[in-house]
Amino acid sequence: MPWPSRKRDKGAVADKKEPDAKIAKTEEETSDKEEEEKSTKPPSGGSKSGWKNWKKTKESDSSGEESKITYCHWLLKSEPESRLEKGVDVKFSIDDLKAQPNQTTFWDGVRNYQARNFLRAMKLGQQAFFYHSNCKEPGIVAIVKIVKEAYPDHTQFDQKDPHYDSSSRKENPKWSMVDVQFVRMTKRFIPLSEIKAHHLAHKADGGPLKNMMLFTRQRLSIQPLTQEEFDFVLSLEEEKPQ
After folding, report:
1. pTM, 2 dp
2. What are the backbone angles phi and psi of residue 194, rounded to the nearest 5°?
3. Rounded Cα gap, residues 9 and 5, in angstroms
4. Which phi-psi region, left, alpha or beta, contains residue 78 (left: φ > 0; alpha: ψ -120 to 50)?
5. Which residue, 180, 183, 209, is CA-closest to 196?
6. Where are the beta strands (DSSP E) in the chain?
């Protein structure tokens, strides 16, 4: 049996010490308190050297033209620590995913329209970072892949589910979900504080994380990533923790 309401998205609750969480509703609708991330300054030379090292492995774009941003990877937030919502524990960690049959589950409970649209844009085989949110130390722990594209989220019709939506109709469902499957753990835990240090440095020098949605739209629990963002963050698993 699938775990109850594991990935929640209803006004994304902010992480306890950092700003992202795993619950969303439209930003305008949410009354959940917004999380302030620790404003970690990048260690001197640390972030920039990481960006320079990453650039060495990438070919420069010789076209000289600004191309339209294309998102082909994702970041999915889920809460690894117990938290009751309408009497239901919404905890769902990477270990919970690995314990599922075939290490696969549906990504239900998204109740933010933009996050839902991102779910609907996901394509079979695309990869995503599994991000532990709303916990003592938020960050990326694993990689998963999309194994079934968007279809109606059954929890919207379940009156016992904390994310039941009485306004949604089966003939025209409001909310969608996808199926994801565990691919592998990252070689090390990549904390939000470290990613933020690179983001701050890249805002100054034009690196790939300068517009990363983890910091520009931090309340969203489903976030798209460009190829450059995904590749850079993935490269951090090869570096020593800062």
Report:
1. 0.78
2. -70, -45
3. 10
4. beta
5. 209
6. 71-78, 84-85, 88-89, 104-106, 127-132, 139-152, 176-191, 222-226
Residue 207 sits at the vertex; the CA angle it makes with 204 and 212, to the nearest 5 degrees, is 95
Compute how many other C-beta atoms are within 10 angstroms of the C-beta atom of residue 69: 10
pLDDT tens string 208-233: 999 999 999 999 999 999 999 999 99
Residues 6+ apart with CB under 8 A from 49: none
Rounded Cα gap, residues 145 and 96, in angstroms? 16
Distance between first and last Cα of the chain = 40
Task: Determine how many CB atoms are found less than 10 A away from the CB of residue 34.
Answer: 14
CB atoms within 10 A of CB 58: 13
Domains with residue ranges and CATH for the chain? 73-236 (3.10.590.10)
Q: Which residue type occupies 206?
A: G
* DSSP 8-state code for residue 195: H
Q: How far apart are CA 92 and CA 125, in angstroms?
A: 22
Q: What is the largest CA-CA distance in the chain?
A: 56
CA dihedral 156, 172, 130, 38 (to 10 degrees): -80
Are 138 and 14 within 8 A, CB to CB? no
Question: Which tens digits make up the pLDDT trace of 92-111?
Answer: 999 999 999 999 999 999 99
Ranges of residues in the chain whose predicted pLDDT is under 70:
1-68, 242
